[in-house]
Amino acid sequence: MTIQLNGEAFEAPGPLSVSRLLATLDIDPRRVAVEHNRLVVKKAAYDSTVVAPGDEIEVVNFVGGG
Amino acid sequence: MPDTPLTIAGRTFHSRLIVGTGKYASFPIMAEAHAASGAEMVTVAVRRVNLSDRSRESLLDHIDTNRYTLLPNTAGCYTADDAVRAARLGREAGLSSWVKLEVIGDERTLYPDNEALVEATHVLVREGFVVLPYTNDDPVVCRKLEDAGAAAVMPLGAPIGSGLGIQNPNNIRIIKEFASVPVIVDAGVGTASDAAVAMELGADGVLMNTAIAGAGNPVDMATAMKLAVEAGRLAHLSGRIPRKRYATASSPLEGVVGT
Fold first, then answer.
1. Which of A16, B113, B157, B195 falls 20 to 30 Å from B206 in CA-CA distance?
2. What total number of domains does chain A contain?
3. Does residue B175 contact residue B167 with C-beta atoms inside 8 Å?
4. Could A63 and B47 be called an inter-chain contact, meaning their C-beta atoms sit closer than 8 Å?
5. Which domains does chain B have, with CATH numbers?
6. Active-site option among B23, B100, B144, B176
7. How many helices (H) and strands (E) does chain B have?
8. How far apart are CA A13 and CA A30, in angstroms?
9. Per residue in B34-62, pLDDT tens?
């Protein structure tokens, strides 16, 4: 399925949970925050939140800033 | 002279210096500068994870979060909606409700958009955030932010990254006089004397990034900033002498040889 991941089209085996998506991307879930269709997904809900075709996902982390 | 520590939203800080994490040549230099600065709170930015290069080191590997409170910012946001969105993501990433709120209104000056800043402050305060807004050095805007529930106000000393020092000392003084929340001078510091001036004017703290990260020797500059903030605070509390146009002799006028 195709989703929008950080603003770009991304092919993911799906539908899948946010947890699975992060694992697929090799991302440590403790270090990031995830938005699903513009709503923040709480870490406790990563397993239960299902990403479907066409969904918009943002995965962010902290970088240097002032 | 005894001083009360800086308290923001009920949390006490023994350092009045807040430092950034951007623009360092390397993470180890940043970590060393942080330690030298004595700061207890560091700002971070919220950005998309780089999906094409997962090998890059993580900033958080170089910040001891037991020692430093993370203050996520909303830098780069030009609307209240985008800033609120970034703040919510920052809260989830850092598991803390503190945010340095920036809503930028102009690319060249990076001056804040006042209306959007006040609006975003209202929204985030309602959602339980501890909001520290980066604002113009305008006493009226600062009062509106405080009325909106800001936990501190952070007027700029000069444009971000400009190193120009405190451009409107009178306004900083007035902002401090009006405010009942802490006043943190945020942005514009170029060197240690600028930080000292901010504190002498009565600011409760100073936030800086480029002045340390961009210095020839960031670690030594961080030490200089720590000392400057302490010196400026102490001078403020000590009550400076009035300015006078003419000289007043420091030595006795009587008993001069030859008179």
1. B113
2. 1
3. no
4. yes
5. 6-238 (3.20.20.70)
6. B100
7. 8, 10
8. 22
9. 999 999 999 999 999 998 877 677 899 99
